[in-house]
Design goal:
four-stranded antiparallel beta sheet; alpha+beta; globular; 117 residues; 31% helix
Length: 117
């Protein structure tokens, strides 16, 4: 009798899944706000009527690093998309998503090389 065996995912299968996922996210980001290639998020504490609230600042960027013109709903939709696609990410820290590479990473500020002298 044939019994199915579980096999480990091959590197090619993982790479193909990553490429498909990256393409899906890129296409959806482009539908949300045309030209979006980079999404940066940062948790921000605000004071609204004397009460501290945690909100998220979202910046949409193009391939050249410039801002993408979008309304509040587009920013909210881009953040929601990333929350759904990366549920295990630590969204209490600043994050940056690159739609070209498909990489989501903690967005840590870095000093330009010229200033390291």
């Amino acid at each position: 009798m044939n019994t199915p065996e579980r096999t480990a995912a091959t590197p090619n299968a993982d790479a193909e899944k990553h490429a498909i996922r990256t393409a899906v996210i890129a296409r959806q980001l482009d539908q949300i706000a045309p030209g979006t290639v980079r999404v940066r998020t940062a948790p921000v504490r605000t004071d609204r009527d004397g009460e501290q609230q945690l909100t998220t600042w979202v910046v949409l960027g193009d391939a050249l690093g410039g801002p993408v013109e979008a309304d509040r709903d587009a920013h909210r939709a881009a953040r929601g998309l990333l929350l759904r696609m990366f549920p295990a990410a630590d969204w209490t820290r600043p994050q940056v998503y690159d739609a070209i590479t498909g990489a989501l990473a903690v967005d840590t500020p870095v000093m330009p090389e010229e200033l390291h002298r």
